[in-house]
Design a protein that fits this description.
The complex is a heterodimer of chains A (113) and B (117).
Chain A: E1 4-5, E2 11-14, E3 19-25, E4 33-38, E5 45-50, E6 54-58, E7 61-66, E8 71-76, E9 85-93, E10 98-103, E11 107-112
Parallel strand pairs in A: 2-11
Antiparallel strand pairs in A: 1-3, 3-8, 4-5, 4-9, 6-7, 7-8, 9-10, 9-11
Chain B: E1 4-7, E2 10-13, E3 19-25, E4 31-37, E5 43-49, E6 56-57, E7 68-72, E8 75-80, E9 89-97, E10 105-108, E11 112-116
Parallel strand pairs in B: 2-11
Antiparallel strand pairs in B: 1-3, 3-8, 4-5, 4-9, 5-6, 7-8, 9-10, 9-11
Classes of the chains: A mainly beta (113), B mainly beta (117).
Chain lengths: 113, 117
């Protein structure tokens, strides 16, 4: 079982719609979770971090965390073509003692004009 | 967040040679990491660069192939040694910031796109 799992996509949504990206993780003791956006040919850019169960909102982005289900998601409201990118879920390595983050394989999002 | 400068941004190298990638941060950081991202893949951690001591390597990565230096809290290098075409990848320097041992946010340099021919 992969430590962090994401659907590779592509996830295609029309402009203005809500994009929902999902991620599950295997290490039950993980306590910090992150979403990164990566445009083609660029390095990952941090867009959201979440540490507690529930929702965290930042502009058009909402991160949702459910530790009991080992599930974290990212909602993008009013999706724009500029949101088209690969979204990487990342989890801290508390269970392994590794301070670096472990990344999922990413979900490619396509926002259709 | 810290400003991370990585160079070179890209290089094409002959097999059997070595390339050293530099990572410079504009402020002192405790944690520095090196990742590899192969085409169409996610990020794989190569090692944690430890200031003043040997790097901590992940399974599948060894010091002889990927020697790492970290002489101070703002600078690190990764060398890809005796390169083969399988080493063609993007190499990313990352710094970790955050409060508490497990709330590390990671920020990345612009990456080095390496092609081995």
């Amino acid at each position: 079982q992969k430590e962090v799992e994401q659907n590779s996509g592509p996830l295609s949504v029309p402009e203005g719609a809500i994009a929902s990206l999902n991620c599950t993780y295997s290490d039950r003791v993980s306590q910090s979770f992150f979403w990164y956006r990566q445009y083609s040919g660029k390095s990952p850019e941090l867009i959201m971090s979440i540490y507690s169960n529930g929702d965290k909102e930042d502009g058009r982005f909402t991160a949702q965390l459910n530790k009991a289900s080992q599930y974290v998601s990212l909602l993008i409201r009013d999706s724009q073509p500029s949101d088209s990118a690969t979204y990487l879920c990342a989890v801290n390595g508390r269970g392994t003692g590794r301070r670096a983050l472990t990344f999922g394989s990413g979900t490619r999002l396509q926002v259709q004009p | 967040s810290a400003v991370i400068s990585q160079k070179p941004s890209r290089d094409i190298c002959q097999r059997g040679t070595s390339l050293t990638i530099q990572c410079q941060v504009d402020s002192q950081v405790t944690m520095m990491f090196w990742y590899r991202q192969q085409p169409g893949q996610s990020l794989t951690l190569i090692a944690t660069a430890n200031q003043g001591s040997e790097a901590t390597y992940e399974s599948g990565f060894v010091i002889d192939k990927f020697p790492i230096s970290r002489p101070n809290l703002t600078f690190s290098t990764l060398t890809v040694s005796n390169m083969s075409p399988e080493d063609s990848s993007i190499y990313l320097c990352s710094v970790g910031t955050g409060q508490g041992a497990w709330n590390t946010e990671a920020f990345f340099g612009q990456g080095t796109r390496l092609t081995v021919v």
